[in-house]
UniProtKB/TrEMBL annotation:
Taxonomic lineage of the native organism: Bacteria, Katanobacteria
Transmembrane segments: 9-26, 32-52, 59-78, 84-104, 125-142, 148-168, 180-201, 207-224, 236-254
Species annotation: candidate division WWE3 bacterium RIFCSPLOWO2_01_FULL_39_13
The protein, known as: Uncharacterized protein
Keywords, ordered alphabetically: Membrane, Transmembrane, Transmembrane helix
Amino acid sequence: MIISKRKKIAISSAVLSLMLFSIPLLTFKWSLGVFAILVLASYGLSVWSLLIGLLGIEFITLFILPVLHTTTFGLLFLQVDLSLFFKILLTIVFGTTLYIILLAENIYNVSAERSIPLLRAAHTVGYIVTLFVSFAFFSLLFGVGINLVLLTLISFVVGTLLFLQSFWQIDLKEFLSSEVLLTSVICSLILSEIIFVSSFWPFSPAAAGLASATGVYVLIGIMNHKIKGDLSIRAVKEYLFVGIAVFILLLVLVNS
């Protein structure tokens, strides 16, 4: 029996949603184990869902968002004591958004071989999810209260992955270009510095997450134009204005 990609995506989303929902129902020790399995399963099931047509670097770039999205929700269920209503609500939100993300990744998979009309929609989904994951993940990371060195290191690794998949989506090549890799590393270094500096301000985890997500927004916006070859001074000023405005707003709120 041949299962279509859409059905595989639905099955994967449902299985991962059930695993996510089970995390707060277990003891903390067991929850950590299920969380680790959940993260690994998010990659395995995502690959299984989109296996047909996968080539080269796609085995990495197409699954960064699904895995980080799953990791973020898993951390949320581990850290926050939620009521049953919110557990159910967030599980539904997770399953629905994961389904949409995998559909978008499938569009990238197909578009790597031939141009299709839905590519613009996939870019929009990828961009929004990247910003959401940036905000949610870094907010949760700041909330853990880990060592500053470890915080910066994790931020660099996660940032590199987020930038990598975002910049790769521009040309959708089978192999990763040196420009995309170098740009991702440089942007992640800048993001790590933003996060490092933010840790010295009395920001709440959510405010620190917003500062991090704003940094991701500015860097992706500017570098996307650069890679496409249509970067202008006006575009740089617009993105920097947003970044500076958000940071000033956060400082005002902290000092008020």
